Structure formats: C-alpha cells, structure tokens
Amino acid sequence: MAGYRCGVRVACPGRSPAIRTPAIQTIAKARPMYVATLITNPETPRLEASLIEALRNAWGGGAADWLNPGIAAEFTLTTRPDNFWQVWQDLQPQGIDLALQLAQGRRKRLLLADMDSTMIGQECIDELADEAGVGAHVAQITARAMNGELEFEEALRERVALLRGLEVSIIAKVIRERITFTPGGQELIATMKANGAYAMLVSGGFTAFTAHVAQALGFDQHRANLLGTEAGRLTGSVAEPILGRAAKLATLQELVVQFGLSVDDVMAVGDGANDLAMLDRAGAGVALHAKPVVAAQCDLRVNHGDLTALLYLQGYRIDDFVTPA
Questions:
Q1: Which CATH superfamily, name and number, covers 110-320?
Q2: Is it true that the peptide bond before 42 is cis, omega within 30 degrees of 0?
Q3: CA distances from 230 to 15, 26, 227, 243, 299 (A)
Q4: What is the C-alpha to C-alpha distance for residues 179 and 171, in angstroms, rounded to an integer?
Q5: In whole angstroms, what is the distance from residue 266 CA to residue 313 CA?
Q6: Other C-beta atoms within 10 Å of 12: how many?
Q7: Contacts of 148 (CB under 8 A, 6+ apart)
C-alpha cells in the first residue's frame, strides 16, 4: 500500500502471510520501483559521474541517466535505501539535492505554485512595507508567519493595516523596480503545459502582484488576496475571507475535481507554513528553498536547484524543456 509524507508517495511495508494463494503471490512480486534524482544549481554545475556511480553501486541501482550533464541525473532502485537521509545530509554541503520517489506517475498534470519567495524572489508585502517606511517591522512578522510561528490570517491583517495610506501607484513601482523572477519559472510552466498540464498560481499575497506574475510566467490562472483601496490609496484592509493555508488546499481539491484528476497528478511547490497543507496533499509536494518548518515535513526538498529542478524531478530531460519566445 502507498502512504504519503508531504506529498510524496512512499511504499509502506506490509505483513506477508505464511501461506499465499497464487493471486497473492502475483501481487507480492509487483514491488514498487523507485527513482533517485540528484540535482544541483544550473549556475554552478557540480555533479560528477564518479559520485553518481558510487551512489548507484552502493544502493544497487540501475544505470545512470543524465538528464542534464553536470546538473541532473537519476537512476532506478528496487528498494528504498535505509540510509537515504544520511546520504541526503552528506550531499547538502556539496550543493547537491537528492530526491527519492516512486517511479510510476512522476509526470504531473496540474501545477500549484506559491508566489512569494517561490516563483519570485521577494515577499511582496515586505517590499510595500519598505516603501511605507515600516519594512523592518513587517519583515519580522512575515518571517514568523512563514515559519509557522503566527497564525497566517491574523498576521496578514496586522501587516496590511500598516500599509494604510500608501499610494496605490506604489504597487506598480514595486513590481517594476523590486520584483525578480526565480530562475527556471518560465521553463517549468511552458514545459508542463506543453505536455498537457494546467498551471495555477495560488498566493497568500495580493492580486495586484499575482496578475503580473501569472501573465509574465504563463500561468493559466491565479488567485490571491485583494487589497482595499479608496481614492488612490490603500485602506489598510484586505478582503475577507483571506486566502491562506486552507484556501490553497481547497484550490487543489477543486481543480482535481474540475479536471477529473487524482491528487497523485498534482505537483505543488512552496516555501512557507501556509503552503504545507497543499504540499502534503499533492502527489509531489516540493519545498523550494523553504523555511525550516516546511522543509522538515517534506521529502522533496530543493535547496540548491532552481525551478527547473521540478522538471528533473518529473524525469524531463534538458532537451525536453520548452523555452517561451
């Protein structure tokens, strides 16, 4: 039987009866196949064949398959290594991410992505707060909320209240001067969509930002919170109900039903505590450069690679990547 840990299907051992019928014997032979994937930052290729071969031999894996020379490689396994997490830890100082998944069903048909510190490199509310002169205070609240120390909805109301009176035009200035995209985002979305997937940007941030990010990166749809405005200035309020952890999970469940999919068909990516519910429910929940409380609860962790790592995790090769014009 398959179990879940933060969106990753793992094989769970079961008891074997002393006497098996032929049917049970057939089921017993159908053991799960795993795939081990090693990924590093494309800006600093450091994967070496000697490392891949040593690990493959130690674990009794299949032949190495280079998805992108120096950047990503994988090999199959028939059992889950007992020392997987020790090896994972040993590779971290070398700038190498290691993942283990069931081989079947790795390519996903639905992508749900967080925005702040995931698809972009910033927290939008912190950037707005900096323009309002309360940046340091708001950034502290944001960090605590994203690490699960504060209830997200109340923390958002508190931070938005500090933006009262800020000119709405400042949002465009922040987008123009402060917002940067995480490398690999366009390739991730374009490649998945070219292979039949649907891409949803779902954020605890604000629609004024998700509209821009979704259009620029090629998302099919976006959802976020709506800032209150009046006479060209922010009112310090946010429309209720606030889109937080529960709403992200509800979006996943809604889209699964809408498209007639299974949760196994979903890849979700995020970095903060308000992403944990959707990461846990998705067939592949990826913690991307995540806060400690998030990474600790996810088996798929990308600490060194960029967003193209999500393609390698699905078995895409560099030659399969689609780059938008």
A1: HAD superfamily/HAD-like (3.40.50.1000)
A2: no
A3: 64, 68, 10, 21, 45
A4: 10
A5: 13
A6: 10
A7: 273, 276, 291, 293, 294
State how far the Cα of 137 lies from the Cα of 129, in Å rounded to an integer. Answer: 8
Per the structure block, which two tokens stand in for 315? 């078995």
**With 80 as the cut, is the pLDDT of residue 52 above it?**
yes
Assess whether the region 2-102 and the region 110-320 belong to the same CATH fold: no
State the pTM of this model: 0.91
The single-letter DSSP state of residue 154 is: H
Q: Look-up: residue for tokens 């309020």?
A: 237
Per domain, the residue ranges of the chain are 2-102, 110-320
Task: List C-alpha distances in Å: 150 to 118, 140, 142, 143, 156.
Answer: 20, 11, 9, 9, 10
Q: Encoding tokens for residue 63?
A: 């032949």
Q: Which fold has domain 2-102?
A: Alpha-Beta Plaits (3.30.70)
Residues marked as catalytic: 114, 116
pLDDT digits (tens, 9 = 90+) for 4-43: 456 554 443 333 333 344 444 444 456 789 999 999 999 9
